[in-house]
Amino acid sequence: MNLKARLRQILAVGGIETLGVVFAGIAGLLIVNVLPKEQYAQYTFLVAASNLMLGISDLGLAHCVLPIIGTRAGEKTWVVGVSRQVFSWRWVMLTGGLLVVGPYWYFNSSGRGWIEPAYLVGTVLYFTIVLLQLREHYYNSVAVVLGHISTTNRIAAVALTTRLVLIGAVLLLPVTDWSVTGILGATAAAGMVAVEMYRIALRKLEVPDFTLDAADRKKVDKQALKITLPLLPAGIFLQVQGVATIFLASLFGSTDLLAEVGAFGRLAIVLTVVDRVTSVLLFPVLARTPTGPRLGKIVLRVHAAYMAAMALVFLSAVFGGHFWVMLLGAKYANLESHVWMVILSAILINASGFAFRTLAVRGLTAKQHYTVPVIISVQVLYFWLFGISDLVSVLGFGIATSLANFVAQYALLGARMSHLHKDQDAAS
């Protein structure tokens, strides 16, 4: 692909991802501004619980698809077969996620007196959303690997527009106990639209509905196990700590604190533009680029560019916190002085994920378990020194955890840079 075509692709994907973040941001900010704190706390908790459940269904499996497909990305049956086999294990893992999240959902929900008909229906809807997201992730994985970027862009635009319009319609109605349920119903409807559009599009693109034979399934499982096994200890821990601030707020804080932590999470959504663009365009390139000096230079350049972009975002939070907090509405006006803490935490955790994915697409997942004791030590030390009692301590815990992740992942990346730089012929 020449430079001009690559730039057009970056602009197209960047445009749709920016649109996605804008639409998601508008929807999220409408929800923050309209819902009372009690209901927004419920919404925040359900989102965190569903994210944890979806994360447990992964635990490194999503990082297996590209390395296993490798240079055979042009073979439709191989791409579909590998994706299907890997995602079949994600459906199995989803059951484990439900067993983990279910008891905590009941403990927190009953303790806060939330178990009412509207909340129960909302919980069922959010589980439905998780099922739809898993199916959508499968279709998206196949489409991206096969290079049907315009298809993924079109489907994302339609689904995002559908969700925004439906949520807007729900929020125009008087606020009741069923408002959160209506918002979740709108999200589920948008997910159904996306899944159906993917199904129709892949059929038109003549992407076969293919299952690998028993021998190939065994090979894929073996490769997937080799990649994911080193990730399991860290994966389990990182999925839990990914929603740690929300869960800590729900355990030790008031409903208002839970709502404030959730509202702050909306501010960091701008960072997902870079992450989504790189997931679509950069990491498939890293997966198929031969090991050697060119690969090493690409990795160094993209990480330098990433850090520069994140530095600009952080400066905007330090010197323009009042503009950020205006987005949340008058109920959260007292949070301006804490904006930089939220953005810093988000930058560090996103950057650590960027480093991890750089390693994962090359199958370099060994030694990830070493990150767990580092992060736990930092968390225990922070909890011992400062405790968890208010918003500042919760946000500080998030920064400490994110910093530990950042240092650990970039240490692993730095240790493997010589491998990425090494000439493939010399290595063999």
Secondary-structure map with pairings?
Layout: H1 3-34, H2 37-56, H3 65-69, H4 76-111, H5 117-145, H6 149-172, H7 179-204, H8 214-228, H9 232-242, H10 244-252, H11 255-267, H12 272-288, H13 293-319, H14 321-326, H15 339-360, H16 371-386, H17 391-421, H18 424-427
Helix pairs in contact: 1-6, 1-12, 2-4, 2-5, 2-11, 4-5, 4-8, 5-7, 6-7, 10-11, 10-17, 12-15, 13-15, 13-17, 15-17, 16-17
Structural notes for this entry:
- The structure is a single chain.
- The protein is mainly alpha-helical.
- 80% of the residues lie in helices and 0% in strands.
- Helix 2 crosses helix 11 (255-267), helix 4 (76-111) packs across helix 8 and helix 6 (149-172) packs antiparallel against helix 7 (179-204).
- The protein is globular.
- It starts with a helix and ends with a helix.
- Residues 423-428 have low confidence and may be disordered.
- Keywords: Membrane, Transmembrane, Transmembrane helix.
- This is Polysaccharide biosynthesis protein.
Give the helix level as a range of percent.
over 70%
Runs in which pLDDT lies below 50 for 5 or more consecutive residues are 423-428
Mean pLDDT: 79
What is the H-and-E element order? HHHHHHHHHHHHHHHHHH
Decide which structural class fits the backbone: mainly alpha
State which percent range the strand residues make up: under 5%
Shape verdict: globular
Euclidean distance between termini CA atoms: 28 Å
What's the count of strands? 0
Gyration radius over CA: 21 Å
Major beta sheet summary = none
Keywords: Membrane, Transmembrane, Transmembrane helix
Protein name: Polysaccharide biosynthesis protein
